[in-house]
């Protein structure tokens, strides 16, 4: 069993159309109660969430420190700045299952993310999609505009992680944290794979340069 107690720190950001429930999810994750009249704050809100002793696999446990950012009043696609994305390892993209437009805009958000991240893509990041306001659809199925499968499908089509459907109203802190914990594992595994890939590439470069040196040596030292 590998137990690493020094936390790994990741920056995560919440994105999505205005009113899909980003701030409500943010507040719930901090243990606050749900509020019908969520006041939109100006500027960016930041919170630190600790996930201790997360089981990565049977043999590995790890502590994580998540620095979570909530966008406030910057929800227009082009208004989000590169600095907001900078260094983020996880992007939590949210739509509301009773709001078709917010789902249609997922593609626009993805384009906008790609645009903003193009020059520092190498830093590595992963996106999770969440459908919020599940309680409304449970209460009255007629209000559901987006089927669960549509959420799943866009994820496999775009190669992003499906976090499922949730409700900032009826899910408690631990249920929302469970969704986040799964995402943290995804991020950790992806970054781990990238690290391994880079190590492999570096090894190959060393091997190639060794071979070149060998050739040179052979050339220089072979008696004519
Ligand atoms: P944001 O603009 O994406 O940050 O959305 P807010 O968190 O400010 O929420 C917008 C409105 O939707 C508020 O009136 C919230 O009370 C409401 N809301 C957010 N999440 C849920 C949810 O899961 N269920 C229900 N019924 N209402 C929600
Ligand atoms: Mg908000």
Q: Your description of this structure?
A:
There is one protein chain. This protein is an alpha/beta fold. It is built from six helices and six strands; from the N terminus they run E-H-E-E-H-E-H-E-H-H-E-H. It has helices at 22-29, 82-85, 100-117, 134-139, 148-158, 173-221, and strands at residues 2-16, 45-57, 60-70, 88-96, 126-132, 161-165. Strands 2-3-1-4-5-6 form a six-stranded mixed beta sheet, sandwiched between helices. Strand 2 and strand 3 (60-70) form a beta hairpin. It binds guanosine-5'-diphosphate and magnesium ion (MG). The site of guanosine-5'-diphosphate has 18 residues, from helix 1 and helix 4.
Helix amount = 40-55%
The total beta strand count reads 6
Distinct small-molecule ligands in the complex: guanosine-5'-diphosphate, magnesium ion
Low-confidence segments, ≥5 residues, pLDDT <50?
none
Shape call: globular
- Cα radius of gyration in angstroms: 22 Å
**Treating each run of at least 4 consecutive H or I residues as one helix, how many helices?**
6
The largest sheet has its strands arranged as 2-3-1-4-5-6
Mean pLDDT: 84
Q: What is the string of helix and strand elements? A: EHEEHEHEHHEH
Q: Given the helix and strand composition, which structural class is it?
A: alpha/beta
